[in-house]
Amino acid sequence: MSLYKILLVDDEEEIRKGIINKIKWEELGFCVVGEAENGMEALDIIDKTMPDIVFTDIKMPFMDGIKLAENIKYRFPTTKVIILSGFDDFEYAQVAIKLGVMRYILKPINSIEMKEILKELKALLDQEILAMSNIENLKANYEKSLPLLKERFLNHWISEYIAEEVIDESIKSFNLKLNAGHLIVAVIRPDDFIKEVDDSTFAKNKSLLKIAIFNICEEIAENKSLGSAFMKLNEIVLVMPLDEGESAKTSEQLFLGLDQIRITVQKYLNTTVTIGVGTVCTSKPLLYKSFEDALAALDYTVIVGSNKIIYIEDIEPAHYVDISFNESDERTLLGAIRVGDPRQIEEIIDTLVGKIEGVTLALKDYQLYILDIISGILKLKRTMALDLSSLFNKEDNFLTLINNFKTKEEIKEWLHHLCLMISKEISIKRNTNKNELIERAKDYIKQNYSDEELSAEKLCNYLHISTNYFSALFKKETKLTFTSYLTLIRIDKAKELLRTTELKAFDIGNKVGYSEGHYFSYVFKKTTGISPTEYRNGKD
Asked: Which of 296, 290, 277, 385 is nearest to 339 (CA)?
């Protein structure tokens, strides 16, 4: 059975080591995944390790335990917080209770007391996981949570055009909280298991895992007022209301809710999900377009990575597809072109052209079918503003081109070539856009590193992109997180000032974005291995 993860936060190393060394953690079902000497360092470790429990002191530099607990409640709501404090202060305890802190314990604490607390915590965590994974409960909840008529309507609504009066009547009948003027669709797709557990019922039955993911989505959607969740084949769909003027990237409620779904699934169900978010829909009958865009966003999982929230507006311009041949065929083909997999493109073209094998068609029907495929492919040219002048002349007549083909093999070869050329243009445009975005971000950081309030969120507001997408792209392209890159820029500038000026370390810290001298010295030494004074004196 997996061990529950613990993070210890205290500015006194002796206390941290004392707690670590006097407890046999694994025997009690726990492991210590990290230790931190202040709240800011703790948040970085939490983001990487996702601990189940955080033990924290209150009085610490840079960020105290109360502020840390507040951040954990906001960003990591499933993580339990235990405060170990030397202050018997009613006001502290009162604030801690409001922040959902589980226990407020006075130091010093002996090993016997600590073991009892850990046993209580393990029992609580075991109970939570049992409630999340109890198979019989899942089956019962599944039957109760998906009334057949409601599910049929929601699936119908995201699949095709429905008259607005029919939609309004159904929303009222099913008591759906979807009367907002603006709506948006997100699709939650389960990824592969991230680790194997021999005795896991979920590992043996993916259908039950799908039900468990749905139950988490439905519960969080209800608690966060995210709208309606329902199942569509192997995916979970969320139809969510937005306030007028809000977009997918500016709605904090939408991001926090979807991110909580992602984190909760990973923590409790031993797997991950990737979430695609479509475009904003301002007309209820056209909701199916937002659903199509959410699926298109998921096509980019192979590029962006799994276990993420992918916004279609971050990847490509908003677009609407007016298809005239099979919807599923077109979505599959355009997805393959976007991703740029030559073998997949070839297989899809073979399948599409294969539909007319052995079928007697009127010349007009044959021409219209091939023209529909070409038209579908060329929609990418318009939606992504591609320059295809090297492929076509203005005077090119596709009908004449089709009539010049002698065999279906020639058709397949030409369509395959066309798809590959467009895929190449998309890749070039995407890489150009990504490189320009990264360079703009670097320039902004270099111009604003002295701003102590500079953050990834502030930078993304300037760039008009989501923090989630930027963080993944920046890390992939630079091999550094935003925080690491900003720190390097600030420390490099600090080194220059230490070499070329007589300014005090405190003043240099102010000039490079650190208002607190002690914290500047701490970061400088952590980055370079020596203090600012030692660096100035030539020790490097």
From this structure: 296
